[in-house]
Design a protein that fits this description.
The complex is a heterodimer of chains A (about 500) and B (about 325).
Chain A lengths: L1 H31 L2 H19 L32 E7 L2 H5 L2 H12 L3 E7 L3 H11 L5 E3 L8 H4 L4 E2 H7 L7 E2 L2 E2 L2 E2 L2 E3 L1 E5 H7 L8 H14 L3 E3 L7 H4 L7 H4 L4 H5 L15 H14 L12 H10 L2 E4 L4 H8 L7 E5 L3 E2 L2 E8 L2 E4 L5 H17 L2 H4 L22 E3 L11 H9 L8 H13 L4 H19 L6
Parallel strand pairs in A: 1-2, 1-3, 10-11, 14-16
Antiparallel strand pairs in A: 3-15, 4-6, 5-6, 7-15, 8-14, 9-11, 9-12, 13-14
Helix pairs in contact in A: 8-9, 9-13, 13-19, 14-15, 18-20
Chain B lengths: L6 H6 L1 H34 L2 E2 L7 E2 L3 H8 L1 H8 L1 H23 L5 H13 L2 H12 L4 H8 L17 H26 L3 H9 L4 H12 L1 H16 L3 H7 L8 H11 L3 H29 L8 H22 L1
Antiparallel strand pairs in B: 1-2
Helix pairs in contact in B: 2-15, 3-15, 4-14, 5-9, 5-12, 6-9, 7-13, 12-15, 14-15
The chains are: A alpha/beta (about 500), B mainly alpha (about 325).
């Protein structure tokens, strides 16, 4: 008898380990499966992840006024330094631009204006880790793209470029590497959150002006459905992460408040309630629900294909897709009609203004331990790169210089207010992550299934939209209770 | 009467040597088994009592995670989906048993058929997922084939979108993948049945079906039981088809997919561990029930328990005496 029991236990153990093997395989496959997600995340994530890793501490930085006190970005006049002589080294992550000669071309142009400043460049693969190692060694050159360091450590490694007040009057997105009122980094380019659309489909459908509100957008989708053969809104349901991309709009885009996402959201008691004026997260997701309900999405959303959709948008088989600006270039390259691919701000207006959420990519930072003349030369170089190299423009980035020219893809963004999310309040850096995990809503953190639920509910009518939002609100409140988060808004 | 030995003597004796040799051979696999199976499992059971993420502080919460597993509606609703996969595994076993029986007799190009039907098992599960995603896409492979057969596209369902049918679609992929493997195992077992038995049965006038029922089936019952247990366990822990094909969305999230979501996206490691332990217990109970069931179904003369043989003898005796009485 005992033999049998033992045999049974052994069988069970073996079957379970078999089952475990099975799941193990599948889990490792999960790395492969949503592969596009990685590429997708890379572009916009670089600045976010850097922000997330920084901890703001309250201790005042003693040397905040820096050795080169007089040297500052805004007061530096490039024309005064035409004959300046120095030799500087620039370490960056754009290995592709190093290899295809773009970097050398920019340096050559720089040397036409500043013939006596020699710039050597080095593109580093595996930049995020390698740069941190070099930073700690101290001997890395004069300019580098700032890796993920703690903000309180910025002054140990980098020279303050200017005060945040001065700099933010001339440049966008400079707050992400600022500390104690001083700014240590300037992004080489920036990404924005909007909506991809096909210009030809819009024209064929008879849409003359780009939509500015959810209702206009839904009406336009209906026009596309009625007047063309294109799919009005392609959800990319099956890929999963493409659904989670909708979360990127519930901050600045939905309320025009750059402190909302990282500071206020965790303290908001009902983030998913309808504010009643066609704004807020409620109405962002309502667009999706209504589009699904009215049959304005692809016929069979469960078998969508991410690689295939790029060409479909390019050829005019898809009207719109809700994705960040990083996707624009991929859509253009996917087939033979790059001129038809367009990019527009998210169709939501807060008090009559359309807000765009944007964020800087990697930032230029200047070595605080470099010699004074190298610092000057480095600042000249950074200023020239930012204002005169057109690098950001050529990369399809949103302009870093205020009022600077944008690539054509952003032509619809004129007149929009462009903001980037403020950092979390000191001491609450991990609170949003904790709330995301506890509520299982995972906003901007892989909460794809919650957005998929909207599509299924809209398409099948299994749930009312207001009920889903009420459920999310109650989950958010439960999480606040569980974690003891103070409710302020 | 054993004489007392010192430890040294014992170690040099046959018994002692036997012990050392066995231990030496066993120690490597046992250490591996312990380190890579039981130790992590023990750790996981430990985690299930904590509120924790992969990094950061953990908080002891006692049985709270287990209570949550039973309170959350998504956990046990997901377990209901296993019923689809269990039904699928029954179909799968019957199909493979049927094909194995046919193929174990002389069939033209039997080897080719065996190879073709075993082939899906050799393909990577993720690849199968991608294959079937296109297979089921509206107007793609499956719909085209059905249209050749005369179906109109309008009357066909959306294989993955329609919630009434999408789980069956996923089960279909799983059956397609595994029936070949079951079949090969069955063929192997059937081959080991003594050929003379068929000959004897044929002399007695048994047809193919009777041969199957009375010779093959009892002959391969061990492998059948093993396959059934593996299939039912596999049904409870179905993961690859829903994860790869539908991402667990649209009502196809099985227990494992939900567990994966909770453990990796939501990072509720404690809760996911508790779910794993609960599933383990469910699987153990299911296995035990199956064991008991098969013990009852496949009773045979050799391992009959004593009461049954007593009963039979008594019955024979009574029959004999009745018969005797009648003739008298």
């Amino acid at each position: 008898m005992w033999k049998k029991v033992f045999a049974l236990l052994l069988t069970t153990a073996m079957t379970i380990s078999l089952a475990a093997c099975g799941s193990g395989n599948a889990a490792s496959a999960s790395d492969d499966a949503p592969a596009p997600a990685d590429t997708a995340a890379e572009a916009p994530a670089s600045s976010d992840s850097a922000v997330a890793d920084t901890a703001v501490s309250d201790e005042p930085s003693s040397d905040s006024s820096a050795p080169a006190g007089e040297l500052s970005y805004t007061t530096l006049n490039l024309d005064d330094y035409k004959d300046f002589t120095a030799s500087i080294k620039y370490v960056h992550h754009k290995t592709d631009r190093e290899e295809d000669g773009t970097m050398a071309g920019m340096i050559a142009k720089f040397n036409e204006e500043f013939p006596n400043i020699t710039v050597t460049t080095e593109g580093v693969t595996d930049y995020a880790e390698d740069a941190l190692l070099r930073l700690s060694s101290g001997d890395w050159g004069d300019i580098m793209h700032i890796p993920a360091v703690d903000k309180s450590d910025l002054s140990t490694y980098f020279m303050p470029l200017d005060t945040l007040d001065n700099l933010s009057q001339q440049l966008n997105f400079v707050s992400s590497w600022s500390y104690d009122g001083k700014c240590y980094g300037i992004p080489y380019m920036a990404n924005a959150q909007g909506v991809l659309y096909n210009k030809k489909v819009f024209a064929d459908a008879g849409i003359t002006a780009l939509p500015k509100t959810p209702d206009e957008f839904l009406a336009d989708l209906q026009l596309i459905k009625d007047n063309t053969d294109a799919i009005p809104l392609y959800t990319n349901f099956a890929a999963g992460w493409t659904m989670g991309a909708w979360d990127a709009y519930i901050g600045i885009v939905s309320n025009g408040d750059d402190t909302y996402m990282n500071q206020k959201l965790v303290h908001t008691t009902e983030p998913f309630s309808d504010p009643g004026d066609n704004t807020g997260a409620y109405n962002i997701y309502r667009i999706l629900y209504d589009a699904c309900k009215n049959g304005l999405i692809e016929d069979d959303y469960t078998t969508t294909d991410w690689e295939g959709c790029k060409g479909m948008l390019n050829r005019g088989e898809i009207g719109t897709m809700v994705l960040g600006s990083w996707a624009y270039a991929q859509m253009q390259e996917a087939d033979s009609h790059p001129e038809d691919v367009g990019y527009m701000p998210f169709p939501m207006s807060v008090g009559g203004t359309q807000y765009v959420s944007a964020g800087g990519d990697y930032n230029y930072g200047i070595n605080v331990n470099a010699s004074d003349e190298n610092k000057t030369a480095a600042l000249i170089f950074v200023k020239w790169m930012t204002e005169k190299s057109d690098w950001c423009y050529n990369e399809g980035g949103y302009t870093v210089v205020k009022g600077g020219k944008n690539p054509d893809m952003y032509s619809a963004f004129d007149g929009c207010e462009v903001l980037s999310d403020q950092d979390a309040i000191a001491g609450e850096e991990t609170l949003l992550n904790d709330m995301n995990a506890e509520s299982e809503l995972s906003i901007n953190a892989g909460g794809n299934d919650k957005v998929q639920r909207i599509v299924v509910a809209g398409a099948t009518g299994s749930e009312e939209f207001a009920d889903i939002m009420a459920d999310w609100n109650s989950r958010w409140q439960d999480a606040q209770d569980e974690l003891g988060v103070e409710v302020k808004y | 009467m054993k004489k007392k030995r010192t430890i040294g003597e014992w170690a040099r004796s046959r018994d002692g040597q036997k012990f050392f040799v066995i231990t030496a051979f066993m120690i490597v696999p046992l250490v591996l088994l312990f380190t890579f199976t039981y130790l992590p499992f023990g750790e996981m059971v430990g985690y299930s009592f904590f509120n924790m993420k992969y990094v950061g502080a953990r908080k002891f919460v006692g049985w709270k995670n287990y209570i949550k597993v039973f309170q959350r509606d998504d956990c046990f609703k997901a377990l209901k989906l296993s019923l689809y996969y269990m039904a699928g595994s029954v179909v799968q076993l019957l199909l493979s048993l049927y094909l194995a029986t046919i193929l174990s007799f002389k069939v033209k190009m039997g080897g080719l058929f065996k190879g073709l039907m075993f082939f899906p098992f050799l393909i990577n599960g993720i690849a199968i997922g991608f294959i079937f995603k296109f297979f089921y896409t509206r107007g793609f492979v499956f719909d085209t084939v059905l249209q050749w057969c005369g179906f109109r596209l309008d009357s066909l369902p959306y294989w993955l979108r329609d919630q009434k049918i999408n789980n069956w679609s996923l089960v279909g992929t799983s059956v397609w993948r595994y029936f070949g493997q079951n079949m090969v195992l069955f063929i192997g077992a059937i081959m080991s049945v003594d050929n003379e038995l068929y000959e004897a049965a044929m002399l007695d006038g048994a047809n193919r079906f009777q041969q199957f029922l009375y010779i093959i089936l009892p002959g391969i019952k061990t492998i059948i039981v093993l396959n059934v247990i593996l299939s039912i366990t596999g049904s409870l822990s179905a993961f690859e088809p829903p994860y790869v094909i539908t991402d667990g969305a649209n009502g196809t999230g099985t227990y494992f997919v939900i567990m994966h979501e909770i453990a990796h996206t939501q990072q509720k490691v404690g809760l996911a561990s508790a779910m794993a332990v609960v599933l383990l217990i469910i699987i153990m109970i299911a296995t035990l029930l199956q064991k008991l069931f098969f013990k009852y179904v496949f009773r045979s003369a050799e391992d009959e328990d004593k009461r049954a043989s007593l009963k039979r003898e008594r019955r024979l005796a009574r029959y004999g005496s009745e018969k005797g009485g009648n003739t008298l």
